[in-house]
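Need tokens for this chain, all 322 residues.
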Amino acid sequence: MVCVRIFLAPMEGVVDHEMRDVLTRVGGYDRCVTEFVRVTDQLLPERVFTRFAPELEQGGRTSAGTPVFLQLLGSNPKVLAMNAVQAQNLSPLGIDLNFGCPSKTVNRSDGGSALLREPERIYHIVAAVRDAVDPSIPVTAKIRLGFSNHDALDEITDNVFRANADELCIHARTREDRYTPPAYWAAVKKVSEKAPIPVVINGEIWNLEDAKKAQIDSGCEDIMLGRSALTSPDIAAKIKAEINGEEHHVMDWWITLEMIVKYLQNSKNHHPMFVSNRCKQWLVFLQRHYPEAKVLFHRVKRLKKADDVFSEIKLYQRESLV
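Here are the structure tokens for all 322 residues:
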């Protein structure tokens, strides 16, 4: 298996600053991308960018040293370019442009994957941002195969290349596919074979075998991991160990649970339901890999207060030790 780089996907409402910190500490990731910063019709203050990417205040890297790219989402080339220049003042290690978000709310506001229906607009957005920021700052794009089908994929990707993007990531599903299996990795091969820039494959990569097949089918060396990073927090480290012929000690359930508790305790999100909601969300993901997560989920699923959630987890840990 050949794999140059493994990236952590920018999952809205999931991969926040603390999550990036936790997962990159486990290891295996070469880059993260932030949740999208929504750009409409105005110049955003620098504090908005640092809210989404606190890493900008520490050299653009997580505490484990993993680079973080700032993702922008919008539809106005001029305003996106202005905001990219504003963000440039904070020395981001890269700027990523979101053309893949399938959210109905985002799409109704002319953002994300809605733009896949108008490939020429994608060219103007990428070109405007690429021309506006310093050449030393990579400008990358993330797309899907199309909005409702793959018919415009060649035109979309040719426009990204023509606009001089530095890299392209393709989630191998259409917007209408959303996250329903399968991912159509093979549809990316015609793009990767002609691409003048690196192409990254994303979608439905849950384990090492999926990663290998995604690479072969798509012709891409680099992969991006999304939900699988939450079901198996050490998946990137596992894949890297396989590539390098090294031994990898799989994270057991108890180490994973300790990691979750520290993440919830360290979160800067002060919403009263954050701990409860995020704990349940992560336990649902973990059930795919750790059967114990299902047991704990049923114990906390009706709890709303953070103190109650932490107390129940401690009780569960004590009972399990006994």
